[in-house]
Amino acid sequence: MGSTRRQTLIGNILVYGALIIICIVWSVPTIGTLITSLRPADDAKTTGWWTVVNEPNFTFNAYRQVLAGKETTIVTEEGEEQTVSGQGMTQAFLNSLTVTIPAVAIPLLVAATAAYAFAWMEFPARRMFFVIVIALLVVPLQIALVPIFRDYRALNLNGTWLAIWLAHTGFGLPLSIYLLYNYISTIPRDILESAFIDGASQFTMFTRLILPLSIPALASLTIFQFVWVWNDFLVALTFLGTNEEVAVLTQYLQSLIGERGSDWHLLTAGAFVTMLLPLVVFFSLQRFFVRGMMAGSVKG
């Protein structure tokens, strides 16, 4: 008995020790980025972040510059140098919200409706359409950008919010439909049959039963879609262009590094500012995350 307890204790110590080591190693880049964001620009460019142990020197100048907008020096027609303050992060933050909120809400609603139809409704070629949706999961995003860009140009949609909303909706739908289908198809049939006998329509069953019961899966997909859209750079650059008035946070951060990449240290401060909202979203919905990912994981 004592030997078994000793072996169990040793096993727990090894497991916990391995987890602690993994967490420390995984956190080193984040810690280094945080320390770099708090160091003076000259120190960040010339020495490694670990040297702060011997020479601690911290400042919030990088955060002030990121939030207020980077100042650039231009030469006027008269040959005089003039300092111009660039666009601050506030407008880019609002632009990111304008892109992200509809780009999360629209695919979730469409995917939930489609998943309910595939799981519980009978219509011709249902299985074939579902296979087509699943096949879209293997289509690389980069390959689809050029054809969609050409179609948008013909429709005069490039540079508009609608263009990027539709793009993120299309790219996010296949995975959302597949995951929600796996979850919705596990709902007991007796519940739906009882509602149907009581006279509930398909719309009523979807809004009163399916959506409330699917909150864990919807919350999990909200986290995935929000983080993907919030951190996206390629799709935003392709369909919104380089106009500062509609630039999102990732485009704003890219502009901070300067033409020759000499101001890369500002990215460390910008990275921590931009991660605040995704963290709020994650911790607000994380209690549903594991349930939503595990439910239906062995179905179909």
Defining traits:
disordered C terminus; 71% helix; flat; mainly alpha; 300 residues; two-stranded antiparallel ribbon
Task: Explain what the structure shows.
- With 300 residues, the protein is mainly α.
- The chain contains 14 helices and two strands; from the N terminus they run H-H-H-E-E-H-H-H-H-H-H-H-H-H-H-H.
- A two-stranded antiparallel ribbon has the order 1-2.
- A hairpin with a 5-residue loop joins strand 1 (71-75) and strand 2 (81-85).
- The longest helix has 36 residues, at 2-37.
- It is flat.
Series of H and E elements: HHHEEHHHHHHHHHHH
Number of strands: 2
Termini gap: 44 Å
Q: Number of helical segments?
A: 14
How would you classify the helix and strand content by structural class?
A: mainly alpha
**Overall pLDDT metric:** 80
Tell me about the biggest sheet?
2 strands, antiparallel
Strand content: under 5%
Which percent bin holds the helix content? over 70%
Widest β-sheet, arrangement of strands: 1-2
Radius of gyration: 25 Å
Can you tell me the overall shape? flat
